[in-house]
Amino acid sequence: MNYKIKMNENGVGVVETATNQIIRNYDGLEPARKLLRHLNLGGAFDGWTPSFMLKKINIPQEKLLPEV
Asked: Cα–Cα distances in Å, from 47 out to 2, 14, 27?
């Protein structure tokens, strides 16, 4: 298993076991279990997610393109 669930101060986290990176935090256990199953069945980077994929980027509203 490349991923596991850990409780943390932000809720329920899905953690990559090889790198100890938190892939995503949830408020509840059920959505975390769904992601855990998806990832452990090969739905992503197989336990070696690049750290830049986990960074959050804030884009100011004025920089967004208008909807068509």
From this structure: 5, 12, 23
DSSP string across 1-44:
--EEEEEETTEEEEEETTT--EEEEESSHHHHHHHHHHHHTTSS
Does any domain span residue 59? no
- Answer yes or no: is 64 within a domain: no
How many Å apart are CA 25 and CA 13, to the nearest integer?
A: 4
Quote the pTM value: 0.70
Give the count of domains, the chain. 1
pLDDT digits (tens, 9 = 90+) for 15-49: 998 888 888 999 999 999 999 999 999 887 777 77
Q: State the residue range of the domain holding 11.
A: 1-45
62 lies in a domain? no
